[in-house]
Amino acid sequence: MAQINTPSQALIGETFLVSGTTFTTGPTTTRIKVEQVGGGGGGGGGASAAVSAALAGGGGAGGYAIKIFDVTPNTNYTYAIGAAGAAGAAGNNNGGNGGNTTFAVGAVTVTSFGGSGGTGSAAGTTVAVTAPGAGGVISTNGDANAGGEAGTAGIRLSGTVGVSGGGGDGRFGAGGIELVAAGTGSAAIGNGAGGAGGSVLNASAAAAGAAGTVGAILVTEYEATV
């Protein structure tokens, strides 16, 4: 990671972006640090049947990147915030994938990929593992690039016992927690995190997963002082 906190530069401020498409640098800004995450994947849904259980997988977190750019004051730079992955509907339905977050300066576009949705679960009584969503693949064009954390698997031990999958954690958010009781998947907190999978136990109602959360970009501005 490049070092930018030198005596020749002064911190101006930070802006946390979760919507919009254009960032305008300040009148004295000459350098920015961009940290960003893709959108989190949604948790899968679980189906219901007599004396049965369904434990869906959790969604993956979005990937992360950090990049330092030299920029021009009072100039617009384009970005996109990765959308949240949709919750898997009640029943054996997969969660949706999170969207990609991007920030562009000149010919360089940093991309942080969204996490994928958790797998839905059919009802049953035998031991089964339901796959989670993968974290977003490794980001591109940052000074440092990382993938997102995967969700955790849903695990059915019998028609009455199991745990749903939790969502992946991210740089700016925490995934939804696993469920050991029947219910809708737990919601993620913050940005770029995965939603938990739904839980059906002993023929309880079909359960939806939880949506992931939208991506985010943290822009830190600096000015030259010499």
Concise synopsis of the structure shown:
The chain is 0% helix and 31% strand. With 226 residues, it is mostly beta strands. The chain starts with 8 loop residues before the first strand and ends with a strand.
Shape: elongated
How much beta, percentage-wise? Answer: 25-35%
Could you give the order of strands across the largest sheet?
Answer: 1-16-3-5-10
- How many domains make up the 3D coordinates? 1
* Element string (H = helix, E = strand): EEEEEEEEEEEEEEEE
Kindly name the structural category.
mainly beta
Distance between the termini: 23 Å
Radius of gyration computed on alpha carbons: 20 Å
Low-confidence stretches: none
Q: Count all strands and give the number.
A: 16
Q: Tell me about the largest β-sheet.
A: 5 strands, antiparallel
How many helical elements? Answer: 0
Provide a descriptive summary of the structure in words.
This protein has 226 residues and is an all-beta fold. It has one domain (1-226). The chain contains no helices and 16 strands. It has strands at 9-17, 22-24, 31-37, 54-55, 64-70, 76-80, 101-105, 108-112, 128-130, 144-146, 154-156, 162-163, 172-174, 189-191, 199-200, 216-224. It is elongated, with a radius of gyration of 20 Å. The mean pLDDT is 96.
Question: Which SSEs are present, and which pair or pack?
Answer:
Layout lengths: L8 E9 L4 E3 L6 E7 L16 E2 L8 E7 L5 E5 L20 E5 L2 E5 L15 E3 L13 E3 L7 E3 L5 E2 L8 E3 L14 E3 L7 E2 L15 E9 L2
Antiparallel strand pairs: 1-16, 2-6, 3-5, 3-16, 4-15, 5-10, 6-7, 7-8, 9-11, 11-12, 13-14
